[in-house]
Write a structure and sequence with these properties.
alpha/beta, Arp2/3 complex 21 kDa subunit ARPC3, Beta-Lactamase, Alpha-Beta Plaits, 8-stranded mixed barrel, 5-stranded antiparallel β-sheet, about 20% strand, rod-shaped, disordered N terminus, membrane, cyclic-guanylate-specific phosphodiesterase activity, GAF-like_dom_sf, transmembrane
């Protein structure tokens, strides 16, 4: 007995619910249709009106054809009755009604429910005990009575026409079979069986036609499989009813056996329905998990941005598909997903099925404040006033509600409203299914949230919240491909190290955050902005002409150079901006190349010119440095790097006190390179240890030769702050001294004042180990850094070297003269030997000697000389004599 269940459907979304003797078109569930976020209708209202009009025309046709068919069959099969037909009709109507209520509903596929009922049993018996009119009346009364009992009034006319066509078709087929068998006096059982199978077939065809009228798709294979199942179950039911009637009519005492068979068949149906339900539940759980996982993969392919169309990184339409799948599985009129991925975010609402009457739930809604993560089943007839009001606000008679929680954090709420395909409403299986599905969904959401957090952290800087280098490359690649006429900016702030040294890293970090905020405000929210490292930022200006890029960079630098308020201080800041654009219009440029070029432009900025665009000549400078670094080791092996020596004399007695070892490099391509050019590059590349070992070994070889000649001349070697960070450096020095058999006192290590003071706590242990070896330690360029006398007293140094800038200025600047005199006095008060660099005139030498300076070094004495020329200088400009300990000493000839 087909019925069209449910309230009028504004979406036009339909499904076929077919029974073993008929089918039903169920409003509000079935084939996936559009879903909405919030209260908006799930389909355009014009389409809903069109579908409703089409179905009304179809209903009128079914009802008209049903009435006409009933009149025609009634005329063909004349009525023969008596008073006994009254109670027979009543019994048949009760049997039809009972068979309808004992139906077993199974959701076979998404949008298709299969109702296994037993209405074929009273129908096949009716062929033997009642005429057509009585069976038709009993069928119609039972069917409409069932619809009214279920409070379904929206499709009564269609169902009435379908009832008429079912019984009319059944008796027409039975009559034809009876005539084919010679028109016997009694109804033959083949005719009754054929007629009984006709009823569910007619019902199914009408339901499939309704799906077609409502413009919903169903595969032919699905329709054929559904029809086949209906005929099989109808045949089993009809056979049981027919066999039972024939057995009881022939052997009345056999009715217990017939009843046992009927109960066994019912139990079999129930077991089969449970098996199908478990299979469908497992499929639904798998589908929901796969939907969330696939949506996560699609979200991972999206740019690292946030959109109003995304909920937890997933498109709202994808959540709507998930909600539609849950609705289909539960055969609910509506499923509502309320999702909140962050504690501070408002809940986003996704609806599948009937639209919500209200746009949002109240803040004190009892259905959204449920504790735990268990499914609650609410019926409007049993609920307390608050819950009843919440259900009425949703336009629902019953609801299943389950919170989605993770670690006591509310991720959302799932609501299912009004079970449509079963008269009893939601049952325990639905509660169990929704609970398990919600658990899977909560786990998937939690995993998605964690993945989204990891992905955000992978692409963003944790301090400023802007993109990091990887995120900038990811976000900027597509706009750069779409707009080749774009510019990459690199902004370097010179405040980070200064502020961190003076006020600590906390305040430096605060200034970086403030600088990042200024950049974002100046550039706008749509410009990709990244913090690369330290106090360096990068930005992409899309579709900007190169001639306008310089003006934009200038404005940006001015904004960033304004003083920064730090606590109650105003810290002055400065910024350097470099920018790079494709060299030719339309040139496809990789983002990494532009970043590198912008970095080169920043490095080329100078005082007074803090904004520079990239030029190819800049790249040549850095390529030269790159070649120097990569070719340095090979140059050492090829003898291109050598050591020159600059003599130092003791001022009181004019004796040669030692030499300073200075490295020189004659490059086959670049020619003679000065230390100021290649040493910083080598140091930055981490090769300074190799260079220091080379100079130390060459110096020890020279000292050893002098010792073999009876000369006691010390050699001074410059070391870097990186050497002081090498814990193995003292051991390497000791091994070299032992290998060349040189007394430690003939080796002096010179280190800059700024190098020691940059990290005195790390440098002190290394210096103490070197001092323990017996080598001399000298502070080079003294007076130019930010010396701390407290640290100078702690350092195990033996010498201080006055920077040549002061020595050169003594003759013309009284201030330089005072500085030199102060350093000499300070050094002597600390028991240190004082060495003056940059002595180029006799007057300066005499002044230093008068002040009591111990050692002089400079062009007045000698320029740095290679080893062979040094030997010639020593022979030509010194006199040899025996010292107190019988060593040969060299005295400068004046």
């Amino acid at each position: 007995m087909p019925d069209l269940n449910g309230r009028p459907d504004p979406t036009g979304v339909t499904s076929v619910a077919s029974g073993s003797r008929g089918g039903a078109v169920t409003s509000g569930s079935g084939a996936p249709g559009p879903a909405a976020a919030g209260p908006a209708p799930t389909a355009p209202m014009s389409e809903a009106r069109t579908d409703e009009l089409r179905f009304r025309v179809y209903t009128a046709a079914v009802l008209t054809f049903g009435i006409a068919a009933a009149i025609a069959v009634g005329t063909w099969l004349p009525f023969k009755g008596d008073a006994s037909l009254l109670w027979i009709g009543a019994v048949l109507a009760l049997a039809f009604l009972l068979a309808e209520q004992l139906g077993i509903n199974v959701d076979v596929r998404s949008g298709i429910s299969w109702t296994i009922s037993f209405t074929e049993i009273p129908l096949v018996i009716g062929f033997f005990i009642a005429p057509f009119e009585v069976v038709l009346a009993a069928h119609v009364v039972a069917g409409i009575g069932t619809l009214l009992a279920r409070k379904v009034a929206g499709r009564v006319l269609y169902n009435a026409g379908a009832f008429l066509l079912e019984i009319t078709g059944a008796f027409a087929v039975a009559g034809l079979v009876k005539q084919a068998m010679g028109n016997p006096a009694l109804m033959p059982w083949p005719a009754a069986l054929a007629g009984t199978l006709t009823a569910p077939l007619v019902s199914t065809l009408l339901a499939l036609a309704a799906v077609r009228v409502l413009r919903r798709r169903m595969r032919v294979s699905t329709a054929l499989r559904l029809t086949g199942r209906i005929l099989v179950v109808g045949f089993v039911n009809a056979s049981v009813g027919l066999s039972g009637y024939l057995v009881i009519s022939g052997t009345p005492e056999a009715w217990p056996l017939v009843l046992a068979v009927f109960l066994g068949l019912t139990a079999l149906y129930w077991a089969y329905s449970d098996l199908l339900r478990e299979q469908r539940d497992m499929e639904a759980l798998s589908d929901v998990s796969l939907m969330v996982a696939r949506s996560g993969q699609q979200a991972a392919a999206r740019p690292a941005s946030r959109s109003d169309d995304l909920v937890g990184g997933v498109d709202v339409r994808e959540w709507a598909t998930i909600a539609e799948r849950i609705k289909d599985q539960l055969a609910a009129g509506r499923v509502v997903l309320r999702l909140r991925l962050e504690p501070t975010d408002a809940m986003r609402v996704v609806v599948a099925g009937d639209a919500l009457p209200v746009s949002d739930a109240a803040s004190d809604d009892p259905l959204l404040r449920l504790p735990g993560a268990h499914v609650r089943h609410f019926r409007i007839t049993e609920a307390n006033p608050d819950v009843r009001a919440a259900l009425l606000d949703r336009g629902a008679q019953e609801a299943l509600v389950v919170p989605l929680r993770s670690a006591n954090q509310l991720l959302g709420v799932v609501e299912a409203h009004d079970r449509l395909s079963r008269w009893r409403g939601f049952g325990k299986y639905d509660v169990q299914l929704l609970g398990t599905m919600a658990s899977h969904l909560a786990t998937s959401l939690d995993n998605r949230r964690l993945l989204a957090t990891l992905r955000h952290d992978a692409y963003h800087d944790p301090l400023t919240g802007h993109l990091n280098r990887l995120g900038f490359r990811h976000v900027a690649r597509e706009p750069l491909r779409e707009f080749p006429n774009s510019v990459v900016l690199r902004i370097d702030l010179d405040i980070f190290s200064t502020v961190s040294d003076a006020l600590g890293y906390t305040w430096a970090d605060r200034m970086l955050v403030a600088a990042g905020r200024r950049l974002k405000d100046a550039l706008g929210p749509d410009v990709p902005l990244a913090r690369l490292e330290g106090a360096s930022f990068a930005a992409l200006l899309v579709d900007v002409a190169p001639e306008n890029a310089h003006q934009a960079a200038e404005r940006l630098r001015d904004d960033l150079s304004a003083p920064y308020p730090v606590d109650r201080l105003l810290v002055e800041a400065n910024a350097m901006v470099g920018y790079a654009a494709p060299e030719e219009t339309g040139e496809l440029m990789d983002i990494d190349v532009l970043l590198q070029r912008a970095d080169v432009a920043v490095r080329a900025t100078k005082g007074g010119e803090e904004v520079r665009g990239y030029a190819p000549s800049m790249g040549q400078i850095f390529m030269r440095r790159f070649q120097m670094v990569t070719q340095f080791r090979q140059s050492l092996e090829d003898g291109q790097v050598s050591v020159h020596y600059q003599p130092k004399i003791s001022l009181p007695n004019r004796q040669v006190a030692g030499v300073e070892a200075l490295v020189r490099w004659v490059h086959p391509e670049f020619g003679r390179l000065g230390p100021d050019e290649f040493v910083p590059a080598i140091e930055a590349a981490g090769l300074i240890g190799v260079l220091t070992e080379f100079v130390l070994e060459e110096s020890l070889k020279r000292v050893r030769k002098w010792l073999d000649e009876g000369l006691r001349i010390s050699a001074a070697v410059n070391i870097s702050v990186r050497n002081l960070a090498d814990e193995e450096f003292p051991a390497k020095v000791a091994a070299a001294l032992e290998r060349f058999d040189v007394p430690p006192s003939l080796v002096t290590f010179e280190l800059t004042e700024s190098g020691v003071m940059s990290d005195p706590q790390k440098a002190l242990p290394i210096l103490r180990e070197l001092s323990a070896l017996g080598v001399e330690l000298a502070v080079d360029d003294f007076g130019t850094g930010y010396s701390s006398l407290a640290y100078l007293r702690q350092l195990p140094v033996d010498q201080v070297k006055i920077d040549k800038s002061f020595v050169l200025g003594m003759g013309t600047d009284l201030g330089d003269l005072a500085v030199v005199r102060s350093i000499v006095e300070l050094g002597h008060s600390l028991g240190l030997t004082v060495v003056a660099e940059g002595v180029e005139e006799d007057v300066a030498r005499d002044q230093l000697e008068a002040m009591g300076c111990d050692v002089a070094q400079g062009y007045l004495i000698s320029r740095p000389l290679p080893e062979d020329r040094l030997e010639a200088w020593l022979q030509a400009r010194t006199a040899r004599s025996l010292g107190r300990h019988q060593e040969t000493v060299l005295t400068l000839l004046t």
